[in-house]
Design goal:
The chain contains four helices and 16 strands. A hairpin with a 7-residue loop joins β7 and β8. A twelve-stranded antiparallel sheet has the order 1-2-6-7-8-5-12-15-14-13-10-9. A two-stranded antiparallel ribbon has the order 3-4. The radius of gyration is 19 Å and the shape is globular. It is mainly beta. Helix content is 12%, strand content 38%.
């Protein structure tokens, strides 16, 4: 039996057309998380281009929910170049209008400059930190309503708190900033033994926590789907824990703007920035 990541493979069904299956395990709250939709789209784009050039940037817009089950993608190559290529993709349920569209740039290495201006937060190592799979303490769930983690956290990704408050903690809040360690249970690896770069697209789609770190418990259940999602990839990440550091910059009118930096702690010279992402998310109340 394959892993959840194996289930994101795409299959060609015609010129520029691909199909895939989104497993229920990717569902968060109501629909599959936007990061796995973005990863499926990236796989279809890479398959159609066939250049072997690594993904550099991808920007996606969610027009309507993309539900678990069969999906189809239609890719349009804008340019297939020797050093860089660009393509667009529409993805959705078979026979239905696409619920997601993306533009992406793939490109090989080029001469240029090298520096990293961002710095990771100082956080404890993941070992020994609270896991998303741990039940809340009695004071955090006095009515016993917790039913366990969503399947994504229970079966695909393990998350461990690094910076911020637990969801149930009602103590005073500060900055809209949160950091978590993340690791796939079954590591999705590329042929070179490094972490599959498209797996970082999933980890990048974890920004709402920064908003709720600022707001704290509200007494209501909120769903925060992506309006858009942009991810920039920087080289390869090694398998293992990745530090996901999110900040929200503005919330208003039912939307919020946030950014995410993904850090590989196993760089030769210390933590290495392997991806940066940003998005606008929207908010809707969930039925209790």
């Amino acid at each position: 039996m394959g892993s959840a990541w194996d289930s994101t493979a795409v299959e060609g069904i015609g010129p520029g057309r691909y199909r895939a299956q989104i497993d229920d395990v990717w569902t968060l709250a109501m629909v599959p998380m936007g990061g796995v939709v973005l990863a499926l789209a990236a796989r279809a784009l890479a398959a159609e281009l066939g250049t072997g050039q690594p993904l550099r940037t991808i920007h996606g817009v969610f027009a309507s929910p993309v539900h678990a089950g069969p999906v189809e993608a239609e890719v349009r190559v804008l340019r297939r170049g020797r050093s860089a290529s660009q393509a667009a993709v529409d993805l959705g349920a078979p026979g239905a209008p696409p619920g997601f569209s993306a533009l992406a740039v793939f490109g090989g290495d080029r001469p240029g400059f090298e520096f990293t201006e961002l710095r990771p937060p100082e956080v404890p190592d993941p070992e020994g930190q609270p896991s998303f799979r741990d039940p809340p303490p009695p004071e955090g769930d006095p009515d016993g309503l917790w039913e366990g983690p969503w399947p994504l956290w229970a079966e695909v990704l393990e998350g461990r708190a690094a910076l911020g408050h637990p969801w149930w903690d009602r103590s005073p809040r500060g900055a809209a900033e949160v950091a978590n360690w993340m690791r796939f249970d079954d590591q999705p690896l590329s042929e070179d033994g490094m972490l599959d770069p498209f797996a970082l697209l999933v980890m990048a789609d974890m920004m709402p926590g920064a908003v709720f770190e600022r707001i704290g418990p509200t007494g209501e259940r909120w769903f925060s789907p992506s309006a858009d999602l942009t991810v920039h990839l920087f080289g390869h990440a090694t398998p293992g824990w990745i530090l996901a550091h999110a900040k929200a910059h503005h919330a208003g009118d039912g939307y919020a703007s946030a950014e995410m930096a993904l850090w590989d702690p196993r760089g030769d010279d210390g933590p290495r920035l392997v991806a940066w992402a940003c998005q606008q998310m929207l908010f809707t109340r969930m039925a209790t």
